[in-house]
Write a structure and sequence with these properties.
Distance between the termini: 26 Å
Helix content: 25-40%
Shape: globular
Structural class: alpha/beta
Number of strands: 12
Bound molecules: zinc ion
Largest sheet: 7 strands, mixed
């Protein structure tokens, strides 16, 4: 079982869940930017280990982009010297191994021909999704963890050439009480959300809780069949 992390080209990570564990040391060394959707463990678990593994072999810091609230949580609860050293001060404050860069919804970070923009989300902690764009080709939207979020679809309806959408549906419909509290989506809630989407990207469904994969994927198949969604598999490569 792996948790959320997407590698973009070879130098950008979107979220740093346990999927990062599939990368070799050479691959880890190439990561210059990490964009975090939010502070939950399944999205950040490998960030402390990543920086600890590579920092002495790198010439420049790893830049961590995330909402200010997420960075504050990381500072207070992870990089606090008790759980893990504060790598924004290692080896010293002038040449740190990690740099925290706040991002707000609507903000676009341009990296060469690529750009990463923060999308609205609605989760139990402050959260964003990300839109990945390449000026010469299409784009990919990743919702991160979110419950219903009208603003998200308003933004995505304005995106030129949206080729792919990775959407979450964490639990099956029967878990609707839990889903409400945890602010996730189920297959029927996602189906409702997608009625607001005016374009037709290839849809990939992710974040299915391991104990519920069979039921959730069956519901995805029956409730979203008109959109021909796929389940996002470990190791899947998107060509944008
Ligand atoms: Zn979450
Ligand atoms: Zn999550």
């Amino acid at each position: 079982m792996r948790t959320t992390s997407l590698l973009v080209d070879d130098d950008i990570l979107v979220d740093a869940g346990t999927g990062v564990g599939d990368l070799s040391l050479e691959e880890l060394l190439r990561i210059d930017h990490v964009f975090l959707t939010h502070s939950h463990m399944d999205h950040i678990a490998c960030l402390p280990l990543l920086v600890d593994t590579v920092w002495e072999m790198r010439q420049s810091p790893i830049i961590v982009h995330a909402p200010m609230e997420t960075l504050d949580i990381l500072r207070a609860h992870i990089f606090n010297w008790a759980i893990w050293p504060d790598f924004t001060m290692i080896p010293d404050a002038e040449r740190p191994a990690l740099v925290f860069e706040p991002i707000v919804v609507g903000q676009k970070v341009v990296l060469g021909e690529r750009s990463v923009s923060a999308l609205p989300a609605n989760h139990s902690v402050p959260a964003v999704g990300y839109l990945l764009e390449n000026e010469n080709s299409g784009s990919l939207a990743f919702t991160g963890d979110t419950a219903a979020c009208d603003e998200l679809w308003d933004v995505l309806n304005q995106v030129r050439r949206l080729s792919y959408l990775i959407a979450e549906t964490a639990f099956p419909d029967a878990q609707s009480r839990l889903v409400k509290a945890a602010r996730h989506l189920t297959p029927s809630l996602l189906a409702d959300e997608l009625t607001a989407l005016e374009t037709l990207p290839d849809i990939y469904v992710s974040h299915l809780k391991p104990g519920h994969v069979e039921t959730t994927s069956r519901e995805v198949e029956s409730l979203l069949h008109h959109l021909r969604p796929s389940l996002l598999r470990q190791g899947h490569v998107f060509d944008v």
